[in-house]
Amino acid sequence: xxxxxxxxxxxxxxxxxxxxxxxxxxxxxxxxxxxxxxxxxxxxxxxxxxxxxxxxxxxxxxxxxxxxxxxxxxxxxxxxxxxxxxxxxxxxxxxxxxxxxxxxxxxxxxxxxxxxxxxxxxxxxxxxxxxxxxxxxxxxxxxxxxxxxxxxxxxxxxxxxxxxxxxxxxxxxxxxxxxxxxxxxxxxxxxxxxxxxxxxxxxxxxxxxxxxxxxxxxxxxxxxxxxxxxxxxxxxxxxxxxxxxxxxxxxxxxxxxxxxxxxxxxxxxx
Amino acid sequence: xxxxxxxxxxxxxxxxxxxxxxxxxxxxxxxxxxxxxxxxxxxxxxxxxxxxxxxxxxxxxxxxxxxxxxxxxxxxxxxxxxxxxxxxxxxxxxxxxxxxxxxxxxxxxxxxxxxxxxxxxxxxxxxxxxxxxxxxxxxxxxxxxxxxxxxxxxxxxxxxxxxxxxxxxxxxxxxxxxxxxxxxxxxxxxxxxxxxxxxxxxxxxxxxxxxxxxxxxxxxxxxxxxxxxxxxxxxxxxxxxxxxxxxxxxxxxxxxxxxxxxxxxxxxxxxxxxxxxxxxxxxxxxxxxx
Lengths: 270, 290
Known about the structure:
heterodimer; A: 270 residues; alpha/beta; globular; B: mainly alpha; transport (chain B); membrane (chain B); ABC_TroCD (chain B); Metal ABC transporter permease (chain B)
């Protein structure tokens, strides 16, 4: 089997400072993988380089064995950016956001066709937020916003979707629901790469993780990859890993400061 | 009575001023929606100042005003974009380029002394000095820009909202950058004579901000904003005749008044709705949002 998306010896940076180098990465059709690393480790830059949004300093990105040319944006790829980068006050409805994704099919004139509307509705239904189609994006909850953007990424029937920190701004329950939705889409054949800095509630639920910190540290099944030494190398602090059957729990290995802080509690609460 | 109301329309210069004013108001209103949603108000404000340099220079060199000022404005926009990537803050880059260009205009004017009147017109606008050629230019620019907006509505909207994702979906963001810089330069150069470099920004920002209060949809905002721009220009110029005040100032003050009224009205409505919702919650404590 050939990889769907491949980075070969990729290096990227901004102005004078490199962000990462020597990145070799392959994603196979049907794979669901997590790009795991601390904030500022270059995950967003890697995702943008894979999408052709950032010009690599060296190396190349291949999609279905075809080299991605400079300035070219790949067909059949979906992208869900970090919610922090979106202007939520922008005057568009959820449905309009999804219809934007139809650009390759319908490039000109303002009026949406009947087909545009049908497809937008169908996708909003698929990600479970059809009821907010007519609402302005600023009125939606964090989870709904994330789903609307996922729906837009799915419009062009992509082979692969890249999501940048899709779970960063939502609570545990919503994170879990989104992971379920992604698992469902993955079961239907979609290849997915998502980035996260959250180990316990996201990374440990994924079937494949890529530990990243200005380059790939290790990759594989989290059961094998999440060892104290790789985690220390990725996150830069020593960690404790507990296995409990199918679950993995990760915590900082420093002594808890709870006891010390308890003595500071106001007397009435002690 | 009717005679008195229609009197200004007996003058040809007034009809010209009205026609140009309404077209400019409409066009600035529609374009303003892009400018405010892309947080470009300061760029537009700066560009209108920068164009003074180009306008004065083309006057001195005997080049056609529209050509000289247009090229100057477009180049200023490109220089700002170039500087921004080079460790200069975007707003600082705008400040540097546009005030330098404005100062050049002022410097040339002060050595030539002879055209203080047209200097005032350039700063604050002069609808009375509009020639039939100016009417044609504004009309053509209006038709061309509105057609471009109509044809390129989808890529321009996507590019405005989410530049990088637009690129992933195949929108050529470089083309959109260039197209919009050209449209912005054409807008400002063609409408400069009506409001002047200092007031033009109000015709771009106020109707669009008013429309934002009234609608959550981009296309609807464009229609509302264009309509407000045209109507306000009409009554602003009309009132300036009777009140004997500068027409530019009259248009700006009137649109500010409209904005204030809409702001107050939408605030009252929102408060009313909120109270209604909280009363509703109070009376049906068992009903929960899904």
